[in-house]
What does this fold into?
Amino acid sequence: MTKPDTYTPPNVWTWDSESGGRFASINRPIAGATHDKELSVGKHPFQLYSLATPNGVKVTVMLEELLEKGIKDAEYDAWLINIGEGEQFGSDFVDINPNSKIPALMDRSGDTPVRVFESGAILLHLAEKFGEFLPSDPALRPEMMSWLFWQMGSAPYLGGGFGHFYAYAPEKWEYPINRFAMETKRQLDVLDRQLADNQFMTGADYTIADMAIWAWYGQLVLGRLYSAAEFLDVESYENVQRWAKEIDARPAVSRGRMVNRAFGELHTQLRERHDASDFDTRTQDKLEPEAES
Ligand SMILES: N[C@@H](CCC(=O)N[C@@H](CS)C(=O)NCC(=O)O)C(=O)O
It folds into this structure.
């Protein structure tokens, strides 16, 4: 194995060096707002402040799935939070999510607006509120919760571990890439075994656990994360592939992937969503046709 330069940690860590890497300029060792910034509020019951990363996509897929079922009370405005520009540290955003990470939701459907942060909590809040995308057999609720929380606990190894060191770190270091590739492949095998006997994560019903896991592991095996499909041999997880493709074909999933997207081809980017018609009229290719040509 190649050896990186040895680093001897000081007795007390201090924030005095530029770490490098793709997110170096926005990472800080302290919480709280860096600047005053008012957030816009639209007319719908749900106000989402987000970006179409896997954690963001979980929630836009859920909202689009609810609307697909004809649940009008799930209408939402989705506002773009550009985390590369540090917008997660604006004062109004931090009031909704003290952890300064997308996605963050304000539920304004009742007398008193309530904030919900953490993508898993948002999925659960919406699922319980509308009684949808939970297992039809109540006995399977603990199984669904287990997989939902499995995703919340596991994905940081995929994103913050594997993805960071494989795709974003300033150099390729063998030790962390090995460590997190091994763990990511182990997690894919966990899913592959579960999906060998189950159409969806908890059986025959498509639930919020599938939405949460698909946003990360489904998109990983479909080759959409970190340009790592070949490296991780994602084709070999045949049951995960079958499940990922089935979910990918859902219209609500296609729409959910577009909302708050500020990267990729212009026709796939619906940076803000305020109405169902926005998918036809307000994608970025329509808003800036000169950039398309
Ligand atoms: N556990 C959180 C994680 C959210 C998260 O890590 N969001 C990332 C984008 S995927 C973010 O906002 N990063 C900005 C930052 O770290 O400053 C959740 O699931 O909601």
Residues 26, 53, 55, 83, 88, 100-103, 118-119 surround glutathione (CB under 6 Å).
